[in-house]
Amino acid sequence: MGRFTTWFHRMGSPRWFFDLSRPWLVGFLAVGVTLLGVGTVWGLGFAPPDYQQGDSYRIIYIHVPSAHLAEALYVAMGVAGIVVLVWRMKLADMFIAVTAPVGMAVTGIALLTGAIWGRPTWGAWWVWDARTTSVLVLFFLYLGIVALRQAIPRADQAGRAAAVLAIVGTVNVPIIKYSVDWWLTLHQPASITFTAAPAMPPSMWVPLLINMVGFYALVAAFLVAGLRNEVLLREADAQWVRDWLERAS
Amino acid sequence: MSIAVAQVRRDFLVAFRARADAVHPVAFFALTVVLFGLSMGPDRQAMGELAPGMVWVLALLATMMGTDTLFRRDFEDGTLEQLLLHGRPLFVAVLAKLFAHWCVTGLVLTALSPLAGLMLQVPAEGLPALAGSLALGTPALTLIGAIAAALTVGLGRGGMLAAVIALPLFVPVLIFGAGASLAAASGASPAAEFLWLGALLAAALTLAPFAVGLALRVSQEY
Amino acid sequence: MSEFLAMGGHGLYVWLAYGISFAVLAALGLRPIVARRRFLSHARREAHARRDADARRDEQRRGRERREG
Predict the structure, then answer these.
(1) How large is the ipTM?
(2) Which residues of C touch A (CB under 8 A)?
(3) Residue range of the domain that includes A82
(4) pTM score
């Protein structure tokens, strides 16, 4: 217990994170680029075409990972929000600040690839499909956090306000998903299910898995890089940052 | 309990003295109903089919506009600070405040909604469900909108930021509320949607005041 | 090769989707690099300014001491 709490509090210190995180950044970046490269080449070039959708299904190798990650990042912000409000941990506040725009961009990828995939599959760029619509609402939830942070001048208050909103949003995410599902079943009797799950052979889902892990790792690298910058910016007046600058130049 | 009663009585008094704040959302609702009617063209049949959902959206926007004034006056004259400092449970005070606010906005909108529905050619069998769904839905909207209003109260900006924050959170309430009115207007039973609206309201009643309290504490430091 | 690019007639959609996605990912990767550069150059300039100001203050003090002493 004692050792865990010490570790937990040390982890919340920006300096501790900055001192340790460089290898993480390199590691995540290497793993992410490699896996995403392998998975993408495999998915585009070597996975067999889908028996119904032909080659257009290959968009799945970016669409599904990005949609997955978009939700996971929002929930992570909600958890960080609790940490901010309960333990006043600076690093968690910085995590929300860095994650909100990145999560919004990832959600944008999921939306755009979904729309592009919808064109050959449904014959329309935008269909009020349950999953697509939930992702669109998720995009606006991210937008709310980014807008709120930008509107509040003082960083620590912006952090706490964003934390409250992230928690509220995280509670809402499953409710929104459920209600949109419900709305869809009322209005559209049957929608095409994308992944032909029973028939998906390993040569199709293994690259999907690789890209999934690759996406997570690559975005983790971006987040670590963003967090390191955020630490430097917010602690710019601290002596340890000045010393570090001295050594770096 | 006495905190709640005192808070409600005080807020009613303030609402009565500052009547414009309560009248504006209602006027906004009436005006947008007229605009919607004019924008639809003369096809009465098409209007009647769309109108239940549309009245819901307009009521939702009017509720959103209403929450803008929820804490502003109290923030400016320091009453909000007293509320946060007095040490009694904030949950009760917030809930009482929201109840008083809902009585002068959401309840009025609910009462006016059959009239709006009638003007927009909603079939008569759809009107009770429209009003009923708004009676359950507008308190939930007020509770959620209050979170956004509380987060932005100290920023001195218009309600646009609050709207960007709150509107995505309104999605479930809108889906079940508009769903209930559309179902009833087309002759189907809206029972399931009503149950869901009730569940959403119950969840909002128990959770939102906490979030509003937290948000007010953060805002007070701006 | 051209068969690969055509993607069974869906080439436009597949390549558009991948193009946009990787462009966004590249932008996300560049952002921290640019931000870091900007921070470093700004911080260095500030450090120089601080050092110059310190030096000037020392110079003035020394000058004052010479005159008085």
Answers:
(1) 0.91
(2) 4, 7-11, 13-14, 16-18, 20-21, 24-25, 27-29, 31-33, 35-36, 39-40, 43-44, 47
(3) 66-195+213-244
(4) 0.90
